[in-house]
Amino acid sequence: MNTGLFITFEGVDGAGKSTQLDYAVNHLRNQKKNIVQTREPGGTAFSEKLRDMVLEAKTPLDSDTEVLLMFAARKEHIVRVIEPALDSGSIVICDRFTDATFAYQGGGSRVQPSRIETLETWVQGNFQPDLTLFFDLPIEMAQRRMGQRKKDRFESEAMDFHERVRHAYLDRAHKDPERIKVIDSSRTKGQIRELVRVELDRICS
After folding, report:
1. What is the largest CA-CA distance in the chain?
2. Which of 57, 99, 141, 160 is most enclosed, with most CB atoms within 10 A?
3. CB 97 within 8 A of CB 124
4. How far is CA 182 from CA 98, 99, 134, 175, 177, in A?
5. Which pTM value belongs to this model?
6. Residues 141, 58, 52, CA angle at the centre, nearest 5°?
7. How far is it, in rounded angstroms, from Cα 132 to Cα 65?
8. Where are the chain's structural domains?
9. What is the chain's percent helix, strand, coil content, to nearest 5?
10. Angle formed by the axes of helices 63-77 and 113-124, to 10°?
11. Is the confidence at residue 174, as pLDDT, over 60?
12. pLDDT, mean over the chain
């Protein structure tokens, strides 16, 4: 029986997700919480190799192949890192999880959601995050914020791809508002940080 908490951070590229995730980790550690910070795809040596294969591929992968690789990495991640940490009572904070697969491969690459749902059930059963924070921002604004930084394969996709990703995220948030909390990333960093703090204190108190 898991006794910890599983919190995931999601967001469109350029929305400031990583900055707020770092704040969340520090905030909870300052409260003497036992935190395990991880990411997807990744989190284990095997999964990190798959991450490189997917994000740094010189030519696009078949979209179904991409989904299968994501869930292969996810299974290892859950078994080797997430579940043991939760069983020990830790708070696991993960940079992306299955919602990202529905958004990027489902929305962006147009893989049928039913295919992803089948793999989700196989790999996860009923396992879901206790809380997901989705950092939302209009795509044009997000692209401006990213500027000239080095981009991975997904970040380099065309605007319409990112619009589909955003729509898929918002659709999932609409369907599961108790778990997925939408954070307006057009606000100042301080305002966003306060929204994050409120959600963390609510679930971790």
Report:
1. 46
2. 99
3. no
4. 16, 13, 5, 12, 8
5. 0.92
6. 80
7. 26
8. 5-204
9. 55, 15, 30
10. 20
11. yes
12. 91
